[in-house]
Structures are given as C-alpha cells and as structure tokens.
C-alpha cells in the first residue's frame, strides 16, 4: 500500500512540476519605445539588470564589419558620469559581476547584484544608453583588445577558422556570411565618426529591451525604471534590410588549410530555417540525436565502436533569419575524410528513412526537458531568456511554453524534416586541412 501511495505522489509531482517552473513576468513599453520586462522572485537576495539591443553582426555594412562586437567592448569604456576604467571597479566593489556578449542578431549586457543594489544596476545601464563616451582613446584601446581576441580565438587557435570558412559558403547574400569578430582591417580603417554613427543608430531605447529579474518590488522597480530610462530620447526608426538566399541545389565542395593543425577534419554544413519556424525545433532534436554528446549516434559509432574518429562534433545554430547545422569529425590514424563522410551519411540516411526508436525518442524528450528546466534555474538565466524570446521570437511567454513545442514533435516529423533538409545536394562539404609544407 505504501508503495502505491508513493507512486501516486510521484505521478502527481511529475505532472505538477512543469507548473512549478512557470516564470511569471510583467512587460510594458516606455514612451521612448524601450520595452521593459519585470520578473519578481524573492527567494534569494539577488537581482539581474540586463539590456538587449537588437543589433548584431548582420546589421553591419559589408565594408565595415565587426562593429557590433566592437561595441560590446567599447561601451564599457566609460560614460559622462563614469570615468574611463571605473565601470568594473564600481560593479565589483558593490558585490556584483557583469558581462556582455554579441551574436549575429543581438548584443546583450547584464549585471548581477545583491538586490539592495538594484538602483545601481539600472543607473549603469541607463548611463550606457544615454551618456556613452565614444572618443579616440577608447576606440584605439578597444581596437588592440579586439585584435588580441582575434589572434587568440581565430588566427592562432587550432581549427579557429572553421566557422568562418563554412559560413562564407553557406551564405552568399546574407550578412551571416561573416563572423561577429569581423574584419580587423575594417575596424582599423573606420573613423571615429563611423563609430559614433553606429551608436546613434542602434543603441537607442526603441531598439532595446530592459529586463529586471530577481528580488524586487514591482511598483518600486517601475518607478526607478521610469526615472532612469524614461528621459532617454527615442531614436530614429531603424531601416533593416532583408536578404533571401537561393536554395543550395548542389553540393558545395571547399577546402581550407590551417597552419595551426596537424590532424585534418571533415565538416558538412546544412542551411536551416529561421529559429521561429517549427522545422528549426525539429532540427534541434535531430542534431541532438545524431551528434550531441558521447551518447549520440555518431559519437558511439565513429569513436566508441569503429574507432575511426578521434572526435565527432556538431554545431546547430538557429538564428533570427536562417540557421545552420554543421557536423564533422577528426579521423584516427589513416582513416580518410571520405570514409568518415560515408559513415556520417549512413546515420543521416537512417534518420531520413526510419523512425527513431521509442527509447531514443524518450531520451530526447528527457534531455530537452532537462535543458528547459536548467535554462530557468537562475535569475540571470531567466533574464536572458525573457529578453531573447521577446526580441528574437516576438513571444516572451515562450519562456514557459517553448518546451511544449518540443513535446509535440513526433518521430514521424523527425523523419520528414530530415528528408527535407539533410540532403547531400543541399550542403557544404568542407575539408579542413593542415597547411601544406613546401617541398625542399
């Protein structure tokens, strides 16, 4: 009898647990166009203040790339009321931490403070938006920082250029063809006025969302938000260009020689739909099934069982306009890249022609449930999700309902979407090779 009671309790708890994860929020607009999202969670004395700007690498001039990422650094230089070099000192001395990151679609800044420093976080972000100091000293300093980042993460890193090489073949028209780091030559040749103009266009309240999440009082926070952000002038309406790619109709073969590697790699990339499309969600599940982690089909087959590959890796990126699924491997010994490609294609073909097992399907569902719960396990994670779902999906409540989309995906749908996108004639095949040595 006791076992039956415990079983019933377990079932009730399992059914109720998704409801316990619900994230409540309130959202509204200021008169200047700034969108505000507030989430109250008084379980711990912590608060996150964050601002996401709808500007990324795709908004850059093709002859002036790297600006969005550059501004991720530049807007920490100082403001009218924050002296140069003092930003991080202010944050750390008040028990906080902060950071920023840039993608091809958006730029995100945030601070995490003890909740008694909420007002400080709001002041910092309002200063960044209203009073940034963009001068030659700051520009020159951050050019050196970005140059060093480029050398460290791209130019001198083993396999550091794979993404750059893949995406310039996957995209011919869309700005996704260049990377967020951009061109150092473009940054070096840009004038101070170029940077000021970029700031004037994009870093304005009507191109941003402010999220405050954590130990707050809603009414008090609204008053502070109005005091700090209400007076900031609205920017001009932003004119955004759209870019439509022609479908890839035949295999694009490419090679790149990297001086920093000794072991070659094969990478195969497929262009995928925008992140808001249902097919993008299905492709998330397909990529997880095939190549996410040591329990994935490709890793178990190529690394564990056949011992043909040192590593199997994958990148599945859904973005605002398009996405990309890239899968690849590094060979063991004399295994050829062609042999690896054949084995990978064999597994892809199975997904296109057979239903994945019920066991694998349930494993996928469990993994996505776990990821969903983990993404909302901290106020910092919740703040990021709220901003992203509002700005890039136009549906803030996806923070609560996105998991339902994954739950509704069927095994049959997985097979049909694989047939639609994962075809040899719709991909880039990139041989990523060691640099050729000149014969003596």
From TrEMBL:
GO biological process: proteolysis
Keywords: Hydrolase, Metalloprotease, Protease, Signal, Zinc
Keyword Transcription regulation: no
Domain Peptidase M16 C-terminal span(s) in chain numbering: 190-367
Signal sequence segment: 1-20
Coiled coil feature spans: none
Ranges where the Peptidase M16 N-terminal domain occurs: 36-171
Gene Ontology MF: a single term: metal ion binding
Protein name: Peptidase M16
